[in-house]
Amino acid sequence: MYKQNYLSKISYKKEIVPGIFDMRVVCKEIAQQAKPGQFLNIKCCEGLTAILRRPISICDIDTKNQEIRFIFQVKGNGTKLLALKKVGDNIDILGPLGNGYYINDQYTNPLLVGGGIGVFPLLMLIKSISSQNSTVYLGFKNKEMVVLEKDFHKVCSNLQIATDDGSYGHKGYVTQLMEKKLQKDPVDIVYACGPEPMLRLVNNTCKKYNIPCQISLEQRMGCGIGACLVCACKIKTTQDWEYKHVCKDGPVFWGNEVIFDD
Amino acid sequence: MYKQNYLSKISYKKEIVPGIFDMRVVCKEIAQQAKPGQFLNIKCCEGLTAILRRPISICDIDTKNQEIRFIFQVKGNGTKLLALKKVGDNIDILGPLGNGYYINDQYTNPLLVGGGIGVFPLLMLIKSISSQNSTVYLGFKNKEMVVLEKDFHKVCSNLQIATDDGSYGHKGYVTQLMEKKLQKDPVDIVYACGPEPMLRLVNNTCKKYNIPCQISLEQRMGCGIGACLVCACKIKTTQDWEYKHVCKDGPVFWGNEVIFDD
Amino acid sequence: MTEINMKINIAGVEWNNPVVTASGTFGFGREYGEYIDLNKLGAICVKGLTLAPRQGNQPPRIAETPAGILNSVGLQNPGVKYFVEHEIPFLKKYTSKIIANISGNTVEEYCSMAELLSDSDVDLIEMNISCPNIKEGGVAFGTNARTVNSITREVKKHCKKALMVKLSPNVTDIKEIAKAAEDGGADALSLINTLLGMVIDINTRRPILANNVGGLSGPAIKPVAVRMVWQVASVVNIPIIGMGGIMTGEDAVEFLLAGASAVAVGTANLIDPTACMKVLEGLENYMYRNNIKDIKEIIGKVEIN
Amino acid sequence: MTEINMKINIAGVEWNNPVVTASGTFGFGREYGEYIDLNKLGAICVKGLTLAPRQGNQPPRIAETPAGILNSVGLQNPGVKYFVEHEIPFLKKYTSKIIANISGNTVEEYCSMAELLSDSDVDLIEMNISCPNIKEGGVAFGTNARTVNSITREVKKHCKKALMVKLSPNVTDIKEIAKAAEDGGADALSLINTLLGMVIDINTRRPILANNVGGLSGPAIKPVAVRMVWQVASVVNIPIIGMGGIMTGEDAVEFLLAGASAVAVGTANLIDPTACMKVLEGLENYMYRNNIKDIKEIIGKVEIN
Ligand SMILES: Cc1cc2nc3c(=O)[nH]c(=O)nc-3n(C[C@H](O)[C@H](O)[C@H](O)COP(=O)(O)OP(=O)(O)OC[C@H]3O[C@@H](n4cnc5c(N)ncnc54)[C@H](O)[C@@H]3O)c2cc1C
Ligand SMILES: Cc1cc2nc3c(=O)[nH]c(=O)nc-3n(C[C@H](O)[C@H](O)[C@H](O)COP(=O)(O)OP(=O)(O)OC[C@H]3O[C@@H](n4cnc5c(N)ncnc54)[C@H](O)[C@@H]3O)c2cc1C
Ligand SMILES: Cc1cc2nc3c(=O)[nH]c(=O)nc-3n(C[C@H](O)[C@H](O)[C@H](O)COP(=O)(O)O)c2cc1C
Ligand SMILES: Cc1cc2nc3c(=O)[nH]c(=O)nc-3n(C[C@H](O)[C@H](O)[C@H](O)COP(=O)(O)O)c2cc1C
Ligand code: FES
Ligand code: FES
Q1: Percent over 90 (pLDDT), chain B
Q2: How does pLDDT run across B76-104, given as a tens digit for each residue?
Q3: Are A174 and A73 part of one and the same domain?
Q4: What is the value of ipTM here, to two decimals?
Q5: Of A224, B168, C240, D240, which is least packed with CB atoms within 10 Å of its CB?
């Protein structure tokens, strides 16, 4: 059978912190296939106003109710329109897309590091990891922007929050928590998602401690399926580097493959 | 004070015959000023999908409830989107625009002739005419497309319907009813609105019987207020002709001013 | 709030702010004067004028396109003399600067119009050599660097006002055309005029416009317009009025960053009669938000990657 | 329902229907093959190829614009040899015709590619002399009638397949360019490639594309594309593949009426992976509704006002 895009009905919608919306849609096919770290390419409106789809990570799946959950921040035209949709409305979704995180039961001490809108895909990830030793560090701008704390807490006892201004949890960057942990505790893989500066730091820190890490990249997209080649990212080759594509070859890459340009 | 466009709330919406919607919106300012034959320039959607406003005649005004009523047929992109709006939604309306019908109590035997979507503005017109001797002829494609019969009946006892296929009322064109009447009864003005072929016939017939007539023209519009000059129509001058503009100089013109191109 | 300075100077003429109406979308200001305070505009550029009155093209003269419109008005106007006698007195009541937009079939016509207007109260003359909607002259002058140069040179001789040349986007190399106009003595440039386009009604199988083709304007053309303004700004030293699809203050900022000293609002007026005011307010808001005190601080300030 | 004939013939190659993918929006077919039956396409035109592999431009390579997109992929591709060896075998499994799209920095490169492809299983070669996203060659060849003529003539000598020339819309006179290509021996023409555009992020004050400028495609450009197809159809006798903003069957009909013998779907694929199928179905529906038995009955059948 051929893959397709799905008109999925919104079953839940809530503005969880100012400008960030928690949305759930019913879609059997996507709910059945989705893996942590994969994303959806969402048409935010009909018509011409925001013509491209918007890539949004899958945050969680409720297989019983065939629900997919995603959380998005309102930034520009498209997300603004998506936020106007109501429960009961249909949205056109393409997915699940991309390669998710590499999960392996041999990793007994995984560390998950998320920053800002990068925390969302980590929820499904932590739920999919069997190890009871997992640690999760989530970073936010300030107390007001902290989201999903309860959701993570339910599935992970080693959860720490950091805020840039210290208004909640650890004061400072989430990578500081991470470095401290790597200094003293055994960690056999780091999974990260967040803004590029954070990912660079995660990557360098993991390199320093010689720990494998998987990071989820962002890039502006067109098709989302690997055909239009717009979402390029620099990936090392044996000789040099080449442009791979975030949508198809990623969004999750091994940290040591990725080259961040200055 | 400056004129402006108004965000008006839809208070009523009904598909009265397939593809034709009766819509009412609340707008004090427009309801207070509107005259029969004037029109609204309506933004059918936000965003870029149907970027221009659509000209739609004012069908009726409820001054008490400050409601404007208009009826439109779904044709292309814009009207399709307008038809998707729901009661409670706001629509951006510019109006009332243009010059309405010339009403004068000295006309004791007015005849109103409407065809298709041209019947809508005649409702407000007949309600505004004081004469008890008014006659209204309305033409439709077939029985299924007959609209507003009851509304007209309430305010006019001399109402006749014609359908092209004879499935209801008189079989044939409304202009045949008109010619029959002009042959035998006194009529001191004809008010017409409808498709161009009908208006031509009305015009020629009135000329033949030497009766003044006022006809409402259609043309594709931009601004709706006389500035962009796109909605040209040929109007006689003492010497020759000139292009006037349907939105500002019309939409209602004296029949003997108008030149219909072949 | 801090005071911000919106004043700009175009070829010796000071405007209160950089927002001007695009020719042909604002009539002679009368109609929109009922919707907005005309004093609040930087300048008013009026409907394109010709030496003799013109009836313009047959209707339909407008068609909707994705995020744009096609028009083929064909310069319907009462002629430059009528304008001087009947429209300038009305416009003079406002503080906004007055820009006359002129089109001709021959170089001589352009020169005569420039002369007539030189003795009038207009502040700037915009020479339209890019109208796609008339058969003769017009765009033919604007698509060849040599003719652009020579017509500018000629008209300049007859023109006592600042002369602005309006460029057509329907060209291979806008930079070459812009330089030709500057070299010919243009005091300012305005761009872009409309892109030539066509819409066919698939039911009647005929073009919607009676003139078959028309000029494409509106948001659809904005990226082309921004690119051209940026290209031209990089090769000329005279001020540029940027236009093409400006609907909001943000759009206006894009043109200013690209190198325009002022921005014209066209198609947006047709959709929202208060569009010029919204663009102005949006522009001011951007300045407040970003703590910019003088509009001149952002002109041409795009940082190239 | 009556039988309808959708078959067309482009330069001796018979297609099952007139719907083809626009180069660069469909990869080498593999990804979309998971969403649609590739056998149902008239032809598949693959990602633009160069002689040597290319990495393409730095990201971001895409920006959204009103009813359109800008792209600056810059011809990322594995090179023509890799294509012949690894992609053609995959494409040959389908009945759709195969079109190779080639770009070069020099005339010699174009000729070498044409030679390499002449011995392959491609059905048509599309010579792209209109890519706005590479510094060398590309669009430079396509914006001058003389060079269009001579490059076509040269490449033709090395080309055993039908040669189609893809025209740039960034020109003053598309008719002149089209005639030059026909005169040079082109067997078909395709148009339009993208319009050069720019989008500036007003917060960072930088162009969104790392390459600063990119090619505008999508619905926004449709009226320009239809106009150009119509203009070109009126001056050449070779078949035209029309493209630019086609999203629906109705859009396709507009291009066919304007004079295109086939239609390419580009940007629409990025938005809806089944877009080509929807265009095909829409086209068929139009034919049923209007009782048209053969697609050829509508090609070029616009009635001019
Ligand atoms: C794989 C992936 C997963 C993502 N997951 C999430 C998520 O779970 N929650 C969330 O809030 N955001 C997520 N993002 C970011 C999100 O895609 C952008 O914030 C969003 O596309 C912006 O669209 P807009 O309409 O608000 O902005 P506009 O400025 O209107 O967007 C214009 C264009 O630029 C693109 N664009 C703008 N910013 C970005 C960006 N940062 N990344 C990619 N494209 C961008 C848009 O997709 C669109 O094509 C993800 C991005 C990627 C690539
Ligand atoms: C003064 C006036 C009063 C009108 N009153 C009514 C009314 O009361 N009820 C009603 O159903 N219709 C009325 N019409 C016709 C109505 O404006 C068109 O049917 C409508 O604009 C079509 O828009 P669309 O989105 O369906 O079509 P589209 O094809 O999407 O429209 C594309 C563009 O063409 C214009 N257009 C297309 N057809 C017409 C037309 N026949 N007249 C003017 N513009 C057109 C549209 O306004 C738009 O700008 C009136 C027209 C005028 C000029
Ligand atoms: C209805 C209409 C009429 C126009 N008439 C003229 C004109 O008379 N002279 C002129 O130089 N430009 C004319 N233009 C072009 C505009 O001034 C402007 O260059 C173009 O529309 C691009 O700006 P916009 O996208 O903001 O509309 C006209 C445009 C429209 C839409
Ligand atoms: C992402 C992208 C990549 C493209 N790459 C190529 C290419 O490699 N070669 C080419 O000739 N045209 C290329 N084009 C242009 C398209 O083939 C087409 O001419 C143009 O996009 C107009 O059609 P559309 O509006 O349907 O997209 C590309 C367009 C897009 C959007
Ligand atoms: S978005 Fe098209 S290849 Fe990644
Ligand atoms: S619609 Fe603009 S003048 Fe009539």
Answers
A1: 96
A2: 999 999 999 999 999 999 999 999 999 99
A3: no
A4: 0.97
A5: B168
Residue A178, classed as helix, strand or coil, is helix
Both B35 and B134 in one domain: the answer is: no
Pick from A63, A97, A131: which residue ends a domain? A97
The closest-lying atom of ligand 4 relative to the alpha carbon of residue D166 is: 11
Given CB atoms, is C202 within the 8 Å cutoff of chain B?
no
In short, whether C68's Cβ falls inside 6 Å of ligand 3 is no
In-domain check, residue B105: no
Closest CB from D67, D253, D298 relative to C220: D67
Q: Is residue B235 part of a domain?
A: yes
Confidence at A62, pLDDT banded by 50, 70, 90:
very high
- Chains touching chain D through at least 3 C-beta pairs below 8 angstroms are A, C
Listed in order, strand segments (DSSP E) in chain B are: 5-17, 20-26, 39-43, 54-57, 60-62, 67-73, 90-97, 110-115, 135-140, 158-163, 170-171, 189-193, 213-216, 232-236, 241-245, 252-254
Shortest CA distance from A46: residue in chain B: B49
How confident is the model at residue C133, as a pLDDT?
Answer: 65
* Predicted pLDDT of residue D135: 61
pLDDT band at C137 (very low <50, low <70, confident <90, very high): low
CB within 8 Å: C271 and B53: yes
Residue C64 and residue B248: Cβ atoms within 8 Å? Answer: no
Q: Which residue of C has its CA nearest to B227?
A: C27
Nearest CA-CA distance, residue C195 and chain D, Å: 7
Pairing of strands D8-10, A60-62: unpaired
The confidence score (pLDDT) of residue D1 equals 53
Alpha carbon nearest to ligand 2 atom 19, residue: B75
Nearest residue on chain A to B78, alpha-carbon basis: A47
Q: pLDDT tens for residues C22-63?
A: 999 999 999 999 999 999 999 999 999 999 999 999 999 999
Number of alpha helices (DSSP H) and beta strands (DSSP E) in chain B: 7, 16
Please tell us whether the domain made up of D8-297 is placed in CATH 3.40.50.620.
no
B103 inside domain: no
Q: Using the structure block, give the residue that is written with the tokens 């970027």.
A: B51
Interchain pair D67, C70: CB under 8 A: no
- If asked whether residues A90 and A151 sit together in one domain, one would say no
Whether residues A195 and A233 fall in one domain:
yes
D31 to A232: CB separation less than 8 angstroms, yes or no: no
> What is residue C224's three-state secondary structure?
helix
D75 has a chain A CB within 8 A of its CB:
no
Task: Summarize pLDDT for C102-128 with one digit per residue, the tens.
Answer: 999 999 999 999 999 999 999 999 999
Q: Report which of D288, D276, D215 is spatially closest to residue D251, judged by C-alpha positions.
A: D276
**Nearest residue (CA) to ligand 1, atom 25:** A78
Residue A30 domain boundaries: 5-97
* Domain locations along chain C: 8-297
**Per-residue pLDDT tens for B136-186?**
999 999 999 999 999 999 999 899 999 999 999 999 999 999 999 999 999
**CATH number for A49:** 2.40.30.10
Nearest CA, atom 7, ligand 2 = B56
Predicted pLDDT of residue D136: 57
> Is the domain of B131 the same as that of B220?
yes
Q: Ligand 5 site: residues with CB under 6 angstroms?
A: A 221-224, 226-231, 245, 247-248
- Cβ–Cβ gap C274/B5 under 8 Å: yes
Q: What span, in angstroms and rounded, lies between the C-alpha atoms of B57 and B64?
A: 20
Token pair for residue A54?
């918007």
**pLDDT value at position C218?**
98
The structural domain count of chain B equals 2
Taking 60 as the threshold, does the pLDDT of residue C290 lie above it? yes
- In this structure, are B86 and B116 located in the same domain? no
pTM of the model: 0.97
Residue B127 and residue B45 in one domain:
no
Closest residue to atom 21 of ligand 4, CA basis: D217
Task: Say which residues have a Cβ less than 8 Å from residue B157's Cβ, sequence separation at least 6.
Answer: none
- Interface membership of C10 toward B (CB under 8 Å): no
pLDDT at D168 over 80: yes
D-proximal residues of A, 152-211, CB under 8 Å: none
| Separation CA D297–CA D294 (nearest Å) | 6
Q: Are residues B41 and B152 in the same domain?
A: no
